[in-house]
Amino acid sequence: MMRSTLAQTEPPVEIPPPDQTATLRDLCDIAFDNSFVRELRADPLPDNIPRQVRNASYTRVTPSAVRAPQILAWSDAVGELLGIAAPDSHTGPVADVLGGSRVLPGMAPYAARYGGHQFGHWAGQLGDGRAITLAEVICPDGLRRELQLKGAGRTPYSRTADGRAVLRSSVREFMCSEAMHYLGVPTTRALSLVGTGEMVVRDMFYDGNPAAEPGAVVCRVAPTFVRFGHVEILAAQKEFELLKQLADYVIRTHFPALASTPAPEIYAEWFEEICRRTAMMVAHWMRVGFVHGVMNTDNMSILGLTIDYGPYGWLEGFDPNWTPNTTDAEGRRYRYGSQPQIAHWNLTRLASALHPLISDEAALVRGLGVFEATFNRTARQMLATKLGWTEISLPDDEALLAELMDVLLQVETDMTLFFRGLADVPMAVLVDNAALVAPLAKAFYDQDAVAGLAGERLANWLRQYCQRVRRDDVPDATRRATMNQANPKYVLRNYLAQQAIDALAAGDARVLDRLMKVLQRPYDDQPEHDDLAARRPEWARHKAGCSALSCSS
Length: 553
Ligand code: AMP
Ligand code: MG
Description:
Elements: E1 32-33, H1 35-39, E2 58-60, E3 70-74, H2 76-82, H3 93-99, E4 110-112, E5 115-118, E6 121-125, E7 131-138, E8 144-150, H4 167-183, E9 189-202, E10 211-222, H5 228-236, H6 240-254, H7 265-288, E11 290-291, E12 313-314, H8 339-354, H9 361-387, H10 397-410, H11 415-422, H12 433-437, H13 447-451, H14 453-471, H15 476-486, H16 494-505, H17 510-519
Antiparallel strand pairs: 1-7, 2-4, 3-9, 5-6, 7-8, 8-10, 9-10, 11-12
Helix pairs in contact: 4-16, 5-6, 5-8, 7-8, 7-9, 8-9, 9-15, 10-14, 16-17
Bound molecules: adenosine monophosphate and magnesium ion.
């Protein structure tokens, strides 16, 4: 593998003032920057072979070229964010760069070194085993954003794996990160999906039946892909000087609001801010019914962004114990209802790793307290908004919420459709049970089950609920509009993603294109696309990838 010749002392590009009206340029004409490479310590060894790396934050590597790179999907919105024009051809120089076959002048590609706690245990060095950051772009909005290829070939952090990614998992990452953005959930983004023209072998069910599947590369975009694990590996290896260097770099570059705080308080404030952002992210996950599936500390972004889309899913049948990740089916560590506690546990691991910089333990405890307070306050307010209440405050509210949880669990109830339907429940006092329940009918997987006692219990709850709504005295139209901004109609159900994958694998991008367009306006009614807001069909319940799925990617 070639080493890039860009010197580590390369000066930074001059940061231009924000120019939102800037015309879009060809990727090949962008002036790239490489602050991570410039300001942090490089692995002194050039060898791209799996190994333990010491005393470094990254290793310079070049993506491995692929046979026939072809752009399969492109996000215009992310292109505009970056100031990059959509290429006019599926193949050619842009496809070559974003598929990993070509490095442009000014790029200094690298794989980052990080560790992590996986499923509750310290796993040692992990690192970018198949992700390679190409460069950073100073965007028209003045912000710095990283272009990172996932599936771009082996690095020293690949361990025994191949450095590649299959089409199905790449489509899922590309689509979901964009869908999450439009849902208002903090997330990394994705610019492009490139088919490699090569096959990748995966044992999808972990049952000893490996098969060849088409490979792909996603170009992900975020201000930085630094994870909790970047800090953890340096603390675990007692590389405290590098730990401080990394912290200072991340704060200076990505938390400019903290810049004027003196050390050591600045580190405590930084931790507190990470806690706050993580709390907001998880509160949003809970609001939209998103289950990440693999909340290891190496999958936790230091910016509080949803990162590393793998075996994720959305609650269809409402069940706090549900996880989409079949690899976690036994312990269900990362189930929907545990996500706030797991985020807190992960932050505790980060706190331990930051201890060399923050000797004041009370400050770390305060930070964790900020997580709890922020999450509780935000999640509660979000739930109130989902219900159409101004807040959860009246004495009987808790009892109503407890009964709601039971009502949602008594028969299989689609979380997204239930909350979306609540806004349409008639608030008039004199309506019969059937009219009261009708707007929610779509949410039930077994229509017969709600016809009997379960329906009666639901109607009883709805009567008390309506009474509670009326006490807020908010005009109906206002309340319903507010609810519809908190309760998406369209989410990327796993079976929908799978349909897009199957079509794309057969050469048809239309399913993906349509879904992506609809998911750009997840809170709008879009009645012509009602079929994409339907509950999961029965055929999809046990079909691979359509409900649950393994970590194989
Ligand atoms: P994940 O479970 O996807 O969060 O990945 C955990 C670790 O395994 C990270 O260090 C990844 O870079 C690495 N990894 C996952 N898949 C591959 C692969 N196909 N090749 C190399 N490294 C991988
Ligand atoms: Mg990961």
